[in-house]
Design brief:
Layout (H helix, E strand, L loop, with lengths): L1 H5 L26 E6 L7 E3 L5 E10 L5 E13 L5 E7 L5 E6 L6 E4 L3 E3 L4 E10 L10 E11 L2 E3 L4 E2 L3 E4 L7 E5 L22 E5 L23
Parallel strand pairs: 1-11, 2-13
Antiparallel strand pairs: 1-3, 3-9, 4-7, 4-8, 4-10, 5-6, 5-9, 10-12, 10-13, 14-15
């Protein structure tokens, strides 16, 4: 071909197949603004011993129209005429009452950062609830009135709104008997760590037995599972 080309002859070549264009990557810009305002607050009531997820404060998060906003945590503070010890922990609940993250205890400044990261879509709003899990012994605190205030929001967006936001003040109660739940391993639980061959399907990892106490019937909203150990999610 080189010799023929140097003599002025035509060189025939096979055209290459054009590359298939890839799927364009759409980059959604992060939102720059987040409005944080008070929602309709729960009515003041009692906070009995061992009660879980008592709603204290509701907050509405609204993202600007320029992009989605990620909230990585909500900073709350125990306020009101009560002691920190009335709470076993503080939790964040979404619109469906599903808990985001694990419960957090209050630090020496009476504060805690609660909730897993959640996204507020551009131009939309989400209303979250800050709830309290009460201690298993409240006799020393009966009659105190506790509040939980939202004092800060962890996000890269600019936060607008008047903080702190404080909801209901619930009265600590140690005499009211409420429903209880006892969790235990169920009859199908394997009971120990086992080695399984790759490709095993339908294997029972755990089994849960839920027993209601005698005070009142209970309703199971959800059960949350946490993957632990050395395996990755893709495994």
């Amino acid at each position: 071909r080189a010799k023929l080309g140097s003599m002025g002859g035509a060189v025939s070549t096979t055209p290459s197949t054009p590359a298939t264009p890839g799927t364009p990557v759409v980059v959604v810009p992060a939102g720059t603004g987040l409005s944080v305002i008070s929602a309709t607050q729960p009515a003041a009531s009692l906070a009995p011993t061992s009660a879980a997820r008592i709603p204290f404060t509701k907050v509405t998060f609204t993202a600007g129209n320029d992009g989605d906003v990620t909230v990585s945590g909500v900073v709350v503070e125990r306020t009101g005429l009560a002691q920190d010890a009335v709470f076993a922990g503080i939790v964040l609940l979404d619109e469906n009452g599903t808990q985001l993250g694990i419960e957090k205890t209050l630090n020496s400044d009476h504060k805690a950062t609660i909730g897993d990261a959640f996204v507020v879509k551009a131009g939309t709003s989400r209303t979250m609830t800050i709830a309290g899990n009460m201690a298993s012994s409240l006799g020393s605190y009966a009659g105190q009135v506790a509040n939980i205030s939202v004092v800060a929001v962890n996000t890269s967006a600019t936060v607008s709104g008047s903080l702190p936001i404080t909801g209901a003040g619930h009265t600590i109660n140690s005499s009211l008997s409420i429903g209880t739940v006892t969790m235990a391993a169920g009859p199908l639980d394997p009971g120990a760590s086992n080695s399984k061959e790759i490709g095993t399907t339908g294997y029972t990892f755990s089994s849960v037995k839920v027993t209601a106490g005698s005070a009142e019937k209970i309703r199971i909203h959800s059960i949350r599972w946490n993957q632990s150990g050395s395996a990755a999610t893709a495994d």
